[in-house]
């Protein structure tokens, strides 16, 4: 496969350029040549009357047509680790078509995030197993066609429709996003037993692995950098109406100062929180409104990811999990950052039990930038101005997140870059005075 071109989020919504190539259908007496056209999620193949003039087409309707849907399966023909054709469904049968490998690679690139391919082992060489669990396993592999190293998540199908729908939801979300701080999906394969999600291979370790080594203590400056990159990823997701719902050190890859957020197995679009795994996440990183959702029957929003990120920040500062039962902040003397009251203030506002008292991802990102600009920045003053604490509603209610506005009875918190920046700039002037 050739290297994917840079694209913008939600590429499927952008105007697409038609792709043409010549394909051959082998026959006993005489081969037939067709012009393949891929455009607007549809493949058509029209018979070429004169094989020497590709543009000289039969003016009749295309003989072969395929409407492409997100989980339509497609099989490539491969011999000696080279693409030479594909199988095309026609009247209940699979017809073989051959083409030049360069054309096939370009076609494959265009189809990679719009279909599900078959026979992964013909396309990728197994290298090693990176992780195993009840879900299946993650392996590192190498593409036969371009020698590119990838990671493949093999998710075991248990035969239940809800489980398959959850996997397909993860695939849909990964296909819809593209951001330098988020893992990138390349292709999807399927067998009778597995869905196999092919993504970029990310060098290095995750934060959980890094913190398991007591020598890997992060300095304050690096912790702020990690949190800034994490919230750059979260604000992108939230702007695109996606909740991750499993923010934890194991899902944050970090190498050479670069962060990538991975594992969208529990992610969902806003509005589907109570329909798709409402009570989910990893112990020690789950917001109270998620833990109590079965009792309250109330919806929750993007701020559950802010809470999880606050727990990650606490872990970076102390090397231990936050005690969620009483939200006690135990400072670990073996960690040099434990005396940094400013960062602990940041943890406190990110892990407020009431989501209406908790800032949005947009506000936290701007606050982190303000802290990096001024190491003595007063977080308490910022928070007091951003939230009317005396009117905080103790029994939170669900709120509309369509325009990032969360309201309670006597409180309004506008979750946007501009509102946070305005508050920050005003407070910065006060502090400097």
TrEMBL record:
PROSITE patterns hit by this protein: PROTEIN_KINASE_DOM, PROTEIN_KINASE_ST
A Pfam entry, by short name: Pkinase
CDD domains, A to Z: PKc (cd00180)
GO biological process: signal transduction
Single annotated GO MF: ATP binding
Domain Protein kinase: 124-370
Record PANTHER family: OVARIAN-SPECIFIC SERINE/THREONINE-PROTEIN KINASE LOK-RELATED, PROTEIN KINASE DOMAIN-CONTAINING PROTEIN
Name of this protein: Protein kinase domain-containing protein
Native organism: Paramecium tetraurelia
């Amino acid at each position: 496969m050739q290297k994917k071109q840079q694209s913008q989020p939600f590429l499927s919504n952008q105007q697409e350029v038609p792709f043409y190539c010549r394909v051959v259908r082998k026959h006993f007496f005489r081969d037939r040549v067709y012009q393949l056209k891929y455009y607007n999620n549809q493949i058509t193949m029209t018979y070429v009357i004169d094989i020497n003039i590709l543009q000289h087409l039969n003016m009749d309707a295309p003989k072969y047509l395929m409407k492409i849907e997100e989980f339509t399966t497609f099989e490539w023909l491969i011999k000696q680790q080279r693409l030479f054709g594909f199988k095309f469904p026609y009247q209940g049968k699979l017809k073989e078509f051959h083409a030049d490998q360069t054309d096939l690679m370009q076609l494959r690139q265009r189809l990679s995030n719009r279909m599900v391919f078959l026979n992964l082992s013909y396309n990728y060489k197994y290298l090693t197993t990176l992780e195993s669990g009840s879900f299946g396993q993650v392996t590192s592999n190498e593409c036969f066609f371009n020698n590119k190293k990838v990671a493949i998540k093999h998710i075991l199908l248990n035969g239940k429709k809800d489980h398959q729908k959850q996997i397909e939801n993860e695939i849909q979300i990964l296909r819809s996003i593209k951001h330098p701080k988020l893992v990138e999906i390349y292709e999807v394969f399927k067998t009778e037993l597995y869905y196999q999600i092919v993504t970029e291979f990310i060098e290095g370790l995750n934060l959980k692995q890094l913190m398991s080594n007591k020598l890997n203590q992060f300095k304050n400056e690096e912790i702020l950098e990690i949190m800034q990159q994490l919230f750059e990823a979260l604000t992108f997701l939230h702007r695109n109406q996606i909740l991750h719902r499993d923010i934890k050190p194991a899902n944050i890859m970090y190498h050479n100062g670069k962060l990538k957020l991975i594992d969208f197995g529990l992610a969902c679009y806003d509005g589907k929180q109570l329909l798709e795994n409402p009570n989910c996440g990893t112990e020690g990183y789950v917001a109270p409104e998620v833990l109590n959702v079965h009792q309250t029957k109330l919806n929750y929003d993007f701020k559950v990811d802010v809470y999880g990120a606050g727990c990650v920040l606490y872990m970076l500062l102390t090397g231990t999990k936050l005690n969620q039962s009483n939200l006690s902040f135990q400072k670990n003397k073996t960690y040099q950052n434990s005396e940094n009251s400013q960062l602990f203030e940041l943890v406190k506002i990110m892990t407020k039990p009431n989501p209406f008292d908790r800032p949005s991802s947009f506000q936290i990102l701007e606050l982190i930038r303000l802290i990096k600009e001024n190491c003595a920045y007063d977080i308490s003053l910022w928070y007091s101005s951003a939230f009317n604490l005396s009117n905080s509603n103790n029994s939170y209610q669900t709120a509309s997140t369509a325009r990032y506005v969360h309201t309670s009875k006597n409180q309004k918190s506008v979750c946007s870059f501009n509102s946070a920046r305005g508050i920050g700039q005003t407070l910065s002037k006060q502090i400097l005075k």
